[in-house]
């Protein structure tokens, strides 16, 4: 078995607001330690459950958060920015399954630090299906025939995963009270949960099907203001839906849609508000 692990930060145990996930804030360095420990619990359990190879992709912000010197020595780490496929860089059809760790629910939904790639995106759609980072990443995995076996994060991320992926195993390390507050397990108890749930997810792998993306998908991103839509619309092939802040792109496949999403959101972040 070969496992792909994408590790985000907002869904990590005990992390509840921007001071934990912004590299310029006072809680960030201790949050990196917890994030790395959390990844290690999944990695160690995967090896103990029979995986011969585990590849981890750092998937938060500049994607250089995990402390490689503290990671399980037998794993491989994909780290740094820019990555052509961001949170799913390096994922291909050689993997038995994927685990999404430290994940959060999509923009506009309840849950700790909910968003979809950037805080300027109100909604994302593939055709008419609203998705967030979790769903988009699962579609890319599905393109390669790889099932998402495990999703770890808060209770709202778990609910989103269960609605998208039948029989997925979820590990709830905290329960959202608000977008910036939660009732959390301690890292020690979260570690026990993650090890157990990783083992369960690998045993259950035959019962989880890849999330198959639609052919020739239409990507639609609804931004919070028209300036963001204007910036995103600078990407060739896009159009703004009249009377909205939604930018549309017709893609040939989910991989092209994913990269279009990356370009559109990067452009939209150039918007100023003064």
UniProtKB/TrEMBL annotation:
Q: Which organism is it from?
A: Falsibacillus pallidus
Tell me the active site. 115 (nucleophile)
Positions bound to Zn(2+) 2: 8, 60, 104, 133
Q: Which UniProt keywords apply?
A: Aminopeptidase, Hydrolase, Metal-binding, Protease, Zinc
Where, by residue number, does Zn(2+) 1 bind?
Answer: 8, 10
User: A Gene Ontology MF term for this entry?
Assistant: aminopeptidase activity
Query: Which Pfam families does the record match to this protein?
Result: Peptidase_M55
Keyword check for DNA damage, yes or no: no
Protein name (record): D-aminopeptidase DppA
Q: Which Gene3D superfamilies match?
A: Dipeptide transport protein
Output the InterPro entries linked to this UniProt entry: DppA_N, Peptidase_M55, Peptidase_M55_sf
